[in-house]
Amino acid sequence: MKAFTSVSPRSLPDAVTALSRARQQGQHAIIVGGGSDALALIKERLIAPDLVVRLTGIRQLDGIARDSNGLTIGGETTLAAMARHDELRRAYGVLAQAAESVATPQIRNAGTLAGNLAQRPWCWYYRNGFTCFKNGGNTCYSAAGENQFNAIFGGGPSFIVHPSDTAPALVALDATFRIVGPKGERTVPAAQFFTLPTVNPARENALEDDEVLTSIHVPAAKAGMRSLYHKVMDREAWTHAIVSAAAVLRMDGNVCRDARIVLGGVAPIPWRLTEVEKLLVGQTMNDALIDRAAAASTTGARPLRNNAYKVPLVQAVVGRALTDLRA
Ligand SMILES: Cc1cc2nc3c(=O)[nH]c(=O)nc-3n(C[C@H](O)[C@H](O)[C@H](O)COP(=O)(O)OP(=O)(O)OC[C@H]3O[C@@H](n4cnc5c(N)ncnc54)[C@H](O)[C@@H]3O)c2cc1C
What we know:
Bound molecules: flavin-adenine dinucleotide
Distance between the termini: 53 Å
Shape: globular
C-alpha cells in the first residue's frame, strides 16, 4: 500500500483548499467521512491517494437542523444518528428505515450520509481489481460474466447497481444536495445527482474530484404523507440490497394524491417508477390497483443471464410496500 498523508481540516473552506491545492500539485486527493468504504478501497489497492482529507472533524457538516422548509442533514451526520432521530422516524420513515437498514451497527456508527451516497459500487469485478470501466478500463465484465447482482434497468455500458440504501429514499422524498467546491456552491436535485453510465461509465454521480457533498435538504412533510423502505438481501444482515423499494405516498383517506416509488439494487442509479406513480395518483388504493401497480413495476426491465429472479422480486417488493402503506 502506498503511503499517504492524512489531514483533518476544522472548516469547510480549509477542506476545499486542501483538495484543490493537492490537485494543482498533481496529487491524488480523496475525501473520507467514516472511511468504511474509502479505506477498504485503499487497502485493496483500488485507489492510491497521496492525500486523505477527513471531514468528520468539521462540526458545521454534522447534525440535523429543522426549519420551516424541512430538514437539513449535514453530510457528516452518521447513519446511526439519522436512524434514531425522532422527527426523521416520525415524518420521514422511509429515510430513517433506509439508514437503519445499512450494514451493521458498527458501520452505521462510523458511516456518514455523504459517504453512503458517494460510496463506490460493490460489483465483484470492480472490487477484485478487474480493469473494468470503474477501474480505468473499457469493459464491463458482468455484462457476459457473473451478473446475479447486477442491473436489470438502465444498464450499459456498465451494469453496476447503485449500492446506497439512503439514495432511493432521498430521491423519493424530492431531496436536494448541496455541493461546495473551489468554484463555489451549487444545489442539485437528488434525482440529478446520480448519473447513468451513458454519461460517464467510470462514475456514479455528478461530483467533481474536488467537490464536497456538504448537506442534504428534505422538504417539509405534507399532510397525509406516508412512507416506508423495504429491502431484500441475500442474507439476513450486513449487506446491500438485491432489491429495495422506497415508497412515499400522499393519501387523502383511501385516495392516493401523490406517489413516489424508487427502486434500489436494480439499476446504476436509484430507479424511479414514474409510470407506476401515474397509475396510482387519483385512484382509490385497493387490491386490484396494487396488483396492477406491482405488475407494471418491471415494465422495461432487461435482465442479464443470471438475474431474471429480480423481476418477480421487484413486483413482490412494490406490492408489499403499497399494501403496507395502505394499511
Ligand atoms: C460489510 C459492509 C456492508 C455494507 N453494507 C451496506 C448496506 O447494506 N447499505 C449501504 O448503503 N451501504 C453499505 N456499505 C457501504 C458503506 O460503507 C456505508 O454505506 C457507509 O455509509 C459509507 O459511509 P462512510 O462515511 O464510511 O464513507 P467513506 O468510506 O468515508 O466514503 C465513501 C466514498 O464517498 C466519498 N465521500 C465521503 N464523504 C464525502 C463528501 N462529504 N463529499 C464527497 N464525497 C464524499 C469518499 O471519497 C468515498 O469515495 C457496507 C460496507 C461494508 C464494509
